[in-house]
Amino acid sequence: MLTRAELRKGWCPGARAPMQARDGLIARLRISGACLSSETARAIAGAANRFGNGQCELTSRANLQLRGVTPERLPDLLAELDRLGLIDADAAAEAVRNVMISPLAGLCGRADVTPIGAALEAALIDATDLHSLPGKFGFLIDDGGPLSLWDEITDVRFAFDQPRGKFDIALGVDAIAIGSCAPEEIVAVALRIARAFLAVGEAMPEPPRRMTDVIFGGGLAALAAAAGRPAPQQEWAPPRPAPPAPVGLLRFGDLSCFGAAAPFGRLSANMLAAVAGAAQTHGRGEIRLTPWRAVILPGVAPQEADALAEYFHAAGFIVSPDDKRLGVAACGGAPACARGTTPTHADALALAPLAGQLFPTGLALHVSGCAKGCARPRRAPLTLVAHDGLYDLVLDGSAFDAPSSRNLSLTAARNLLHAMAST
């Protein structure tokens, strides 16, 4: 089995620094505020067809990436993205701008975090000393609204607490609490924490890639002190409902939205163009991206929900919260990824009904093309990890954890899940 260091080959792609896959370059667009106009979405769809292989992906950080770009077409793609205002001046500025905010920010949350997110992005770009942050190091700002981001993986999170009018601050996957701050303090606090992370990391035997590395490495207290924050508290575990599936008609008070999910995050350029058309015709010309690999159209008329469901279903989207595909995560696998040896999407489709029987609520199964676990870098009830055309099964763990069963064909994996569901 490959070591963690070997699995780290590659990087988080951007547009300025795309990553090579088996099907071409992957160019990731960090969409500020995870909000697109219908005109911009339509232009991106056109670029995906002209400069890539016509395939796009919604990522778990509410970004949008284009696949199959060739080196020869990359300059033209960058020129188009620059015209659309979607890329940064250089790769370093692009890489540091990892800020995720609530999908419906400014529409129905308890605090409008849109300007805060934009200010933090701008501050990170200006703070050139922070351009050495690891590529995956990220920030999250949750507005306390109905579509909570609290369970999403990040390094530094700010969650609004309405009674106090402040944002609680927590670090790492386990959300270690280090006090709170006022809304106007978020940018300064975030920069101090990031600088403390780099400073503490310099003294560690191996430079940390995520906040969790500092926590497990015993540097949390020093980091908090360097950032001027209160001493870390025990793990803060607020209620964590099953990951939402924002599909179909969504009603939040007076606001009506429609959500549609791309199966396993993959959508064609034509599907993206269909989203743009629906946003223009049935919404307010605005598209919100989510970390759940779904898009949301705000401001739709509730009486048009059935027509929208039929439209998005015909375009290839998931529109029912009962769809078993929502309970499965899968990376591109073969043939898209150089490490892939199994057709993960097809295998995930075959196993989705059985996984849904075993775990009817939330995500049940992660089908990973290798131990890197790109589609879900965290625990899942069932995780199948591919190697050499076969799968290892991990129970209640991640793609890098020790398996309970090894070297399963798809048929053997299906039979094993069937046996588990029958007991």
UniProtKB/TrEMBL annotation:
Keywords: 4Fe-4S, Heme, Iron, Iron-sulfur, Metal-binding, Oxidoreductase. Residues 21-82, 257-314 form the Nitrite/Sulfite reductase ferredoxin-like domain. GO terms for molecular function: 4 iron, 4 sulfur cluster binding; metal ion binding; oxidoreductase activity. InterPro entries: Cbl_synth_CobG-like, NIR_SIR_4Fe-4S, NiRdtase/SiRdtase_haem-b_fer, Nit/Sulf_reduc_fer-like_dom_sf, NO2/SO3_Rdtase_4Fe4S_sf. Pfam families: NIR_SIR_ferr. It comes from the Bacteria. NCBIfam families: CobG (TIGR02435). This is Precorrin-3B synthase. It comes from Methylocella silvestris. The gene is cobG.
